[in-house]
Design goal:
The structure is a single chain. The chain is of the alpha/beta class. The chain folds into three domains: 1-210 and 306-395 and 850-915, no CATH class; 416-602, P-loop containing nucleotide triphosphate hydrolases (Rossmann fold, 3-Layer(aba) Sandwich), CATH 3.40.50; 625-827, no CATH class. Helices cover 44% and strands 17% of the residues. The chain contains 32 helices and 32 strands. Strands 14-13-15-16-12-17 form a six-stranded parallel sheet, sandwiched between helices. A five-stranded antiparallel sheet has the order 1-3-7-6-2, with helices on both faces. Strands 18-31-30-19-29 form a five-stranded parallel sheet, with helices on both faces. α7 (189-208) packs across α14 and α24 packs across α25. The chain is globular and about 85 Å long. The two termini are 30 Å apart.
């Protein structure tokens, strides 16, 4: 994603763009900013940006009269949003080494792509207003945006990018200036990125005839560009980043705080100057281009040759014919259906943009309109709309949706996804009916060492019902409850087989319960192989019990396949898990849905934790009770500070726990932070002389591994076996004991194994820290979580329940915030994928609770999003409470919608584009 949207808050929000941005890179060599949007035109703003006018708009004022546009902004109010569009590195390099004419072509292509996306943003812009306690979402009449194009990174490498600063003021249909409903803007950053890159590729191909590599995640580099050049123009950035890091460390050490944005800007500017080569080049635009060409020449790549090798490679214009359109639609729906159960219309636009062929030469604005029209067509003909039917007489927006429906609430899916989910539901209902005919749970089972909840779960697992659902919160002793049930079934002559989402989890399950176990994927694979029958261990007889561990992580396609197989083979399924922890990768949530329908046997007591207060606290945390943070704070479990201070503190805690003989889970919510923690932990061990950094070493990318280092393997490899017969599994922990010229020897819980060089090169990494997802199911003495970015309640709950003796959260905070402030917002978030049938039910319940707005009456839809701290700035009350005012607003909305429908009817017939 190379379009990022940043929220701009506070009274200084606009000054960066007028004071620092113009001289940040080229000391005046960058072009002046320009206005964009119908909202800007309404304010009399066009052409170049005047600093005073821009600052007035960002302050919520009419720039010529000083009249306030809507409510007065508070000290910390949201003033606007910076959507930053960054070109691929190869495009920036082409701009860097080209002559003036080529640079103009590249920048104009970039500008057209940016403007096309901003036009799409404007067409989707909404505001919200309240009427008698209800909230409606209405069309905005344009946006006000200041557009600032820049040509270099902060490190003075070529980086063509644009800051589009969208003011948090839009005009509503009744003429008032209200706050922009920016939820879609923030949620659709990947859509903005997809549209920008599709438009940029098309325009550069049309203008310059460049070819492209196949896009990855919607982004592609220019083909025929020498990789050495791309690498060269990233080196200065890496050196400058190193110097920035050093300066930031000194700043934090000296002042014990994070720098302000202005102070950070100065430090970065100093680092850029420090990292310049000895031969000084003028900071003017011409001087920089000359220095860039010189750097390319030093690599043996003359600027003329670089341009000649990339420009003019495509000589024939290409549009999108009906066959291509059909392929795009199929590809988009397939991509969406693999990752999620439902999607919003903007997400469909994003996937269609990703499917645009790289040889298309359609003008960006036209391409964006086409993609939106195609998405509308696909929505109407290929998708199932899960929203409730629109009542007659409902007031509608331009997109045809009722104003009672928030733009982010609409949910789409496909018939195939719904059918798959409904088959699972029907199967489960049938199994539950069969299980309810007689009492199938044994009463002669020895459960005296179990809690009441564990005993009931044990009897359920050991019974005869064809489907059992068991819920176990973190630390409730699910495995303890299952073990006697497995023994009881096996003693009765029944086959019991366990499945889990990972091979490592399956091994633990099998070892602790004494049953055969493997991954669910392996069981399904054995029964779908066309070349042979299943191996004996997987060829389970009728009446077998299959125990599904961590059932919440089973994807919907996996569960559909398993239920179908169980139906064919007459197997029992015992599904055990916690729907409040992490869900499946991809489409999921069916375990939770089945529990909502049928209920479940629930383990009633948490056993894992040493301290009683923590046992109680984890139940409250699981239920989303943010007041529990006071307990964690009281017991010293929450820590906050700067990034540097928090990283140091968590590594100190990790080191101290290990020194005390405790097992530790060191966790973070992103791979980037995990990598940082791994490097810090390794360095701490080196500083403690725990292994020799001057001895044999293995270089893996930027990581250097030594004898004694702890690593994890990242791929199941059944052909690699330890000296005790254990297979090498994904997420297994090992210690390096030897480094060879053709691999490494590692030792772990399942034995010692020599890993070949090809496996080592791709599938091992430092193993001191892991993501929160990777630690689900683990139990250690101490759990340590670093939070330095977005995380939801599941991530908090799962991470803070790994440790028996203690669980700590180390939170990077801004000035004035505490760890509890950050975690309070995180706990109420839930990013889990919900099944389409669950989403449909919730939307219809919401409709029943909140009657629709009709053009003749003043009722409304929706409640304030109680978890949004800035909701008061977004919801706007009508200036008058009388029905006449409200009916006038309705008429304004309807008139705008009718004009839009007439325009769409004339323009949208889905003909071939570009032909």
């Amino acid at each position: 994603m190379t379009v990022r949207v940043t929220t701009l808050k506070g009274v200084m929000a606009g000054r960066y763009y007028t004071e620092q941005l113009p001289s940040y890179y080229l000391d005046g060599g960058e072009p002046p900013g320009r206005w964009f949007g119908d909202g800007a035109a309404m304010l009399g703003l066009d052409r170049e940006i005047d600093d005073e006018a821009f600052l007035a708009v960002m302050a919520g004022l009419q720039p010529t009269t000083g009249e306030r546009l809507g409510r007065r902004f508070g000290e910390t109010s949201v003033r606007g949003f910076d959507a930053t569009f960054s070109a691929p590195k190869s495009v920036s390099v082409l701009f860097a080494v080209g002559d003036q004419q080529l640079r103009r072509e590249v920048t104009e292509a970039h500008d057209r792509a940016v403007d096309a996306v901003l036009g799409w943003v404007e067409s989707q812009a909404h505001t919200r207003m309240r009427r008698r306690g209800h909230v409606v979402c209405v069309d905005a009449e344009g946006i006000v945006a200041g557009v600032f194009r820049q040509h270099t990174s902060r490190r003075l490498d070529p980086q063509l990018h644009t800051h589009a600063v969208i003011a948090n003021r839009v005009k509503a249909p009744d003429g008032r200036w209200l706050a922009l409903d920016a939820r879609t803007l923030k949620m659709d950053q990947r859509t903005l990125s997809g549209l920008y890159h599709a438009g940029l590729r098309a325009e550069l191909t049309r203008r310059l005839g460049v070819r492209w590599h196949e896009p990855e995640h919607g982004i592609a580099e220019i083909a025929d560009m020498d990789p050495k050049v791309l690498a060269e123009f990233s080196q200065r950035s890496r050196e400058a980043e190193r110097r920035v890091g050093e300066k930031l460390t000194r700043f934090r050490t000296d002042l014990d705080r994070e720098p302000t944005p202005r102070e950070r800007w100065r430090l970065e500017r100093e680092a850029v100057l420090d990292s310049r080569p000895a031969k000084h080049h003028s900071p003017s635009a011409g001087g920089l281009h000359e220095s860039w060409r010189t750097r390319a020449t030093a690599l043996g790549c003359e600027a003329h040759d670089l341009v000649a090798s990339t420009v003019g490679r495509v000589r024939r214009a290409a549009g999108i014919d009906r066959a291509t359109m059909a392929d795009m639609v199929e590809g988009a729906l397939e991509a969406l259906g693999e990752r999620q159960s439902t999607w919003r219309p903007a997400e469909l636009v994003r996937e269609l943009a990703a499917q645009v062929p790289t040889n298309v030469t359609v003008e960006p604005k036209r391409l964006c309109r086409f993609l939106q029209d195609l998405a509308d067509h696909v929505t109407a003909t290929r998708c199932v709309d899960l929203s409730p039917p629109i009542p007659d007489g409902a007031v509608r927006r331009r997109d045809g949706r009722p104003i009672r429906e928030a733009a982010i609430d609409r949910a789409l899916t496909t018939r195939a996804i719904l059918d798959e989910e409904e088959r699972i539901v029907e199967w489960a209902q049938q199994q539950r009916r069969l299980g309810g005919i007689i009492d199938t749970r044994p009463r002669d089972l020895d459960t005296q060492d179990l809690s009441v909840g564990q005993a009931e779960a044990c009897r359920a697992a050991a019974g005869m019902a064809p489907l059992e659902l068991i819920v176990g919160p973190a630390g409730s002793g699910k495995t303890t409850a299952l073990t006697p049930a497995v023994t009881f079934l096996q003693n009765g002559g029944q086959t019991v087989f366990g499945v889990a989402s990972t091979a490592a989890a399956a091994q633990v399950l099998g070892t602790e319960t004494t049953m055969a176990a493997d991954t669910l994927d392996k069981l399904l694979y054995e029964h779908t192989r066309p070349d042979r029958s299943p191996q004996p261990v997987y060829d389970l007889p009728q009446g077998s019990t299959v125990i599904v561990d961590e059932a919440g992580t089973v994807s919907t396609p996996q569960l559909a396949a398993l239920t179908s197989l169980a139906d064919q083979k007459a197997w029992r399924l015992v599904m055990v898990g916690d729907p409040r922890q992490f869900s499946a990768v991809g489409r999921g949530g069916m375990f939770a849905h089945l529990i909502d329908i049928h209920g479940a046997t629930e383990l009633d007591h948490v056993h894992r934790f040493t301290h009683q207060w923590e046992r109680d606290a984890t139940r409250r945390l699981r239920n989303g009770d943010v007041t529990v943070l006071k307990d964690y704070q009281h017991h010293g479990r929450l820590h906050d500070g700067t990034a540097h201070a928090i990283e140091t503190a968590i590594i100190d805690a990790w080191s101290d726990a290990r020194a005390g003989g405790e097992s530790v889970a060191l966790m973070a919510n992103t791979n980037h932070t995990v990598n940082q923690l791994n490097q810090l932990a390794q360095q701490r061990r080196i500083d403690a002389h725990e292994f020799d950094p001057n001895g044999p070493a293995l270089q893996l990318g930027r990581e250097r591994l030594f004898i004694g280092d702890e690593v994890v393997t990242r791929r199941n490899q059944r052909t690699l076996r330890t000296d005790r017969g254990g297979m090498v599994k994904n997420r297994d922990h090992w210690r390096i004991v030897q480094i060879h010229s053709d691999g490494v020897t590692v030792t772990g819980r399942t034995g010692t194994v020599r890993l070949p060089a090809d496996y080592v090169a791709e599938h091992i990494e430092l193993g001191y820290a892991q993501t929160s997802h990777a630690t689900q199911g683990r139990t250690v003495d101490v759990g340590l979580l670093l939070v330095d970015g977005p995380i939801d309640g599941r991530g908090i709950y799962t991470s803070l329940t790994r440790g028996r003796n203690a669980n700590h959260a180390y939170v990077v905070t801004a000035e004035g915030d505490t760890a509890a402030d950050v975690l309070t917002q995180a706990i109420v978030r839930d990013w889990v994928d919900q099944p389409a049938i669950t989403r449909r039910t919730k939307l219809r319940i919401n409709k029943a609770l909140h009657p629709s707005l009709r053009s003749g009456g003043p009722s409304g839809h929706g409640l304030l999003d109680r978890h949004r701290p800035d909701s008061a700035e977004i919801i706007n009350e009508p200036s008058s409470n009388d029905d006449q005012t409200w009916q006038s607003i309705n008429r304004s909305i309807e008139a705008a919608g009718q004009r839009h429908f007439a325009e769409r009817a004339r323009s949208c017939d889905h003909r071939d584009i570009g032909h």
